[in-house]
Task: structure prediction
Amino acid sequence: MATKLDFSRTVLEFDHKPWYPLARICRFKGGCAICGIRTFAFDDGQHDPRGPLGDHASSALQAAAFGMTGKDIPLCCNCANEQTRYEAALVLGKDYGWALP
Result:
């Protein structure tokens, strides 16, 4: 069980004691659609970029959040929080099959 994450893998187990009593599982969510960095999210949904994931924390754009259907667009926290990059990701919606239901 790791105490430091190896971002070259696709499924990671992380020992985050003393904050969590059990090991946490983290999964690869895709390369950021804008900058390409590998993004990850913990199964428990707590993947804050201020934690062990850092810049690799997933901040995917979800079609449902915009009233559409389609696949999530993988984004890293940096690209999701920078306006120009965020807007560039929105343009990619058609490439991810985004459409009105």
About this structure: Residues 28-96 form one domain. Residues 83-91 form the longest helix (9 residues).
